[in-house]
Amino acid sequence: MSEFAEIIAGIQAGSVVPYIGPGAVADARHAVTGQPMPADSHSLILAMNNGQPMAPKLMYEFPRAAMNLELKRGRSFIERFLTETYSARYSRAAVHDWIKAIKPRYVIDINRDTQLQDSYADTPYTLIVGIARVGGTDYRFKLYHYDGSAYTEVVQEQVDASLPILFKPMGTPRPEPSFIASDADYVDYITELMGGFAIPSFLKEHRKGKRYLFIGVPMNRDTERMVLSDIVYGAAEPKGWVLNPSPTEKERGFCNKLGLSIIHADAADLLSQVEKSRTAA
């Protein structure tokens, strides 16, 4: 069995968890303008700043740029920008069409769009949305039950463990806008993630012994690395695979340290193998 075949079989069986990043939606286009969905750090900064680059130190990563504009224009500006950006209509990303076809038991999506939720539109599921800097709760997540047509906010004790789990740690505009965006958000979220307060108890049990396939996930920034390291806590050894056709030295070192094998391929290569497997069957 080839490496891709093993991974695909694992995803279908529930032992391998797709972990989706900005590279997985690189082919999604705005329905009106035809422009790519801004998902990676660089394109998000440009979209947030009316297409204009910011100072080099702010262009380093989106949370830093978002913090700068939050201080200047208020938190509501960031929330409004992300809500409007990801409430717009985009063409479907091929990765999400594949997810829709197989509906894995558990998917992690660090993008802030709704395509993953759309993939399960006709299927009941549990949605976990990351939150930060919110008073009145010890936790850094909200839980929603989706019944196939509408969302209801629930507490941990009400979660149906038999349903698929969609984890959106960086947020989504639906059912209510909530985003991890600025440096201050990430500091709060990662602190509570490390302390165990950003992962529901049922997920702490469910994730034990899983392996992961990272699709379009950058691993050259400490922010993403800290988030993913804690989200995959309790994984099997080795922890899984990273699709990256041209990893940097820093990325190679991090993957080796974490126990992730790098596959020199991208999402298109994965989907090509999926199609070959389907044709052969």
TrEMBL record:
Protein name as it appears in the record: SIR2 family protein
Organism per entry: Methylogaea oryzae
